[in-house]
Fold this protein.
Amino acid sequence: MNSTPTRNLAMELVRVTEAAALSAARFMGRGDKEGADGAAVEAMRLVLNTVDMDGIIVIGEGEKDNAPWLYNGEKLGNGSRPLVDIAVDPIDGTRLLANGSPNSISSVALAPRGTMYNPGPFVYMHKIAVGPAARDAIDINASVKENLNNVAHALGQKVENVTVVILDRDRHLDLIKEVRACGARIRLMPDGDIAGALMTCMDNSGVDVLMGIGGTPEGVMAACALRCMGGNLVGKPFARNEAEKQRAIEMGVDFSQALSIEDLVSSDDVFFAATGVTNGDLLSGVDYIPNGAKTDSLVMRGLTGTIRQIKATHRLDKLDLISSVQY
């Protein structure tokens, strides 16, 4: 059936992540996480407000970062349709950026109003992410060994050839032992599990699975991208302490509830964009040239499954004439 294509908002979102990345990259290696995050937030918010949409932030800076902007519930866009939920992560990997380390990115996602999972104050979750070939092979309630065996089978590989990305945290010491006992390989990442999840869908990344406890907001962001890429992400809420668990019980949160990718974002009509801030496995970082800079971005649309890589050159002298963003 022929129909008129709807507007691809992802093509507008790449301007948002480019602006955030260009602003934040000036802080690379300077040890100033707050300064970098503040610059990215300001740039992202300014450009988001130029997009033709009526948006509400569902996944924002608020709960973990106490941010005055891009907080959960903030309205953004110029107020015209469509009505959308917004998920933002101005810098996934602020510590990476501050230390001049790889894999820091800026990302944003949109979905129809009411379709994004709102974790509220419970900002961590168990999660497993995989690419398209293994999308039906994972179960958040299954053991590490069972999941790795099923993923290896889906990939037509031995478990010894499967590579698992895990955030380098003390809470993952037992998980690391279990993965190694299965014979799989591990790539420890200091931060940046949005990039880690996306890498499971990239043919040349060398990553097959992401496992561990990470941010629920990052999980929702990654779920939006993986719906576009044909991958899968499953999760389960995680309480950091007994007080948080009790608060959750009082609010009706079920920590035994398995969350599918459809629970995290229930529509295929999703848009995702990410721009590299520092060089990484997923994207190249901002590269400064005389009187300008180069950026590397991914732009995705769930409805069509289209994934674009956009390499752009920016003339900073011209941008300074028309924008209040400090590039």
About this structure: The chain has a mean pLDDT of 91. The chain is about 30% helix and 25% strand. Residues 237 and 255 are 5 Å apart (CA to CA).
